[in-house]
Specification:
Blueprint lengths: L5 E7 L2 E6 H22 L5 H32 L4 E7 L2 E6 L6 H28 L4 H21 L7 H14 L2 H28 L4 H29 L5 H4 L1 E2 L10 H12 L3 E5 L5 E6 H5 L11 H4 L1 E2 L5 E2 L5 H9 L5 E6 L2 E7 H16 L6
Parallel strand pairs: 2-3, 9-10
Antiparallel strand pairs: 1-2, 3-4, 5-11, 6-7, 7-8, 10-11
Helix pairs in contact: 1-2, 2-3, 2-4, 3-4, 3-5, 5-6, 6-7, 7-12
Length: about 375
């Protein structure tokens, strides 16, 4: 099994589901906060063991709520003809990775609204159950919390700022009215940056006022939104520069490759230290792509196991790797790489590896393209 920053849980309705390590940390923190603070206040007198059980149930069901929210996006995307690379849950919720561009503004609007619609239904159902059924105190506390939390998640997600769902709704509406996807992205991303900056300021003020952890968390969310909004804007602008180009125009041909049966010791000491690349394609003797391996995955293992373990033990296998065809539009490749953990993709023709594409390769091509344009030449 490849050792990446996400844990693969399996497939539901043909869509791969994974959990980033950051969500596992958030789940532990959520459990602690609920068991130690929230439930003792909302349901006093139940005992520490009951509060812990309530917290565990609440976190598991909330996890399922996030999955349902993202599946709302994913299934609607499938109806719109947009392929799905998978769903990953992490510290701020979940991400449904789309493998293709939105065909129309109306399609993006429907996809963006599908997730919040699921959260709305879940919130209303949980609160209705709590109001209509005579539940035990512990169960009532959990169901109330789940209802309120899903509605808070809905309200937060509908704020008109990229990368939130509300920002995508705004972008779709602006795209439809202006007929310009990039201009719509710039506007929605600017609101996202402003919102992120506002949260950072509020978080700092909360810390100064004695808010402690809540202020830090608020600033952290703001920092994430700021970075994500910038990434959305950059991706839209870069998309204009690479229009008409293909993966084959930017990929590295004949990249350094490693065999799956190479020991980690040889991989790190002979390959990595000789070439200093972040990741390497793994191919068999016939040149067929088997996966991709990162030196960071290898370094996570104790040095005394480097000799016994092989590259195949830590690589991301081919079925879980990002794979591009050489004629894939470079703009679409960039969109997919933005959601990739390794930020690299294997370029294959049939089973044969013919190249490697990374975000850095695209940036280099753009720099060359801009330099040639400024010198009065044209890329061909």
């Amino acid at each position: 099994m490849g050792m990446t920053s996400s844990v693969r849980l399996g497939r539901i309705a043909g869509i791969e589901l994974g959990v980033n390590w950051s969500w596992l940390i958030a789940a532990v923190l959520f459990t602690w906060v609920l068991a130690d603070g929230v439930f003792p206040q909302t349901n006093p007198g139940l005992g520490d063991g009951v509060y812990l059980a309530m917290a565990l149930v609440a976190v598991v069901v909330f996890f399922a709520s996030l999955v349902a929210h993202e599946f709302g996006h994913a299934l609607q995307a499938r109806r719109e003809g947009v392929a799905i690379d998978g769903i990953t849950l992490w510290v701020f919720g979940g991400v449904a990775k789309l493998a293709g561009p939105f065909p129309t503004p109306e399609a993006e609007l429907r996809i963006a609204l599908a997730g919040p619609a699921v959260s709305l239904v879940l919130g209303v159902v949980f609160l209705a159950v709590a109001a209509l059924l005579p539940l035990p105190a512990a169960a009532d506390g959990v169901v109330h919390w789940l209802g309120n939390t899903n509605l808070v998640l809905l309200a937060f997600n509908m704020l008109p700022a990229l990368p939130l769902d509300g920002g995508r709704v705004l972008r779709a509406l602006l795209w439809r009215s202006r007929r310009d996807f990039r201009a719509a992205t710039r506007t929605a991303a600017a609101l996202g940056r402003g919102f992120g900056q506002g949260l950072i300021v509020l978080g700092v003020l909360a810390v100064v006022a004695g808010g402690g952890a809540s202020g830090v968390w608020l600033a952290f969310i703001g920092w994430f939104l700021l970075g994500a909004a910038d990434a959305e804007a950059r991706a839209a602008e870069l998309g204009g520069l690479v229009s008409g180009l293909r993966v084959a125009d930017a990929m590295v041909r004949n990249p350094v490759v490693v065999a799956p049966d190479l020991s980690l010791e040889d991989f790190l000491e002979r390959v990595f230290f000789a070439h200093r690349h972040t990741a390497y394609p793994v191919v068999d003797d016939a040149g067929r792509a088997q996966g991709i391996v990162s030196f960071r995955d290898a370094l996570r293992l104790p040095r005394d196991r480097w000799q016994e373990l092989r590259v195949a033990d830590v690589m991301v296998p081919i079925e879980r790797s990002d794979i591009f065809a050489p004629d894939l539009a470079l703009e679409e490749a960039m969109r997919r790489l933005a959601g990739s953990q390794l930020r690299r993709a294997l370029v294959v023709r049939g089973p044969e590896l013919i190249g490697l594409l990374s975000v850095t390769d695209v940036v280099r091509l753009l720099e060359l393209f801009e330099a040639e344009a400024s010198a009065g030449s044209r890329y061909s």
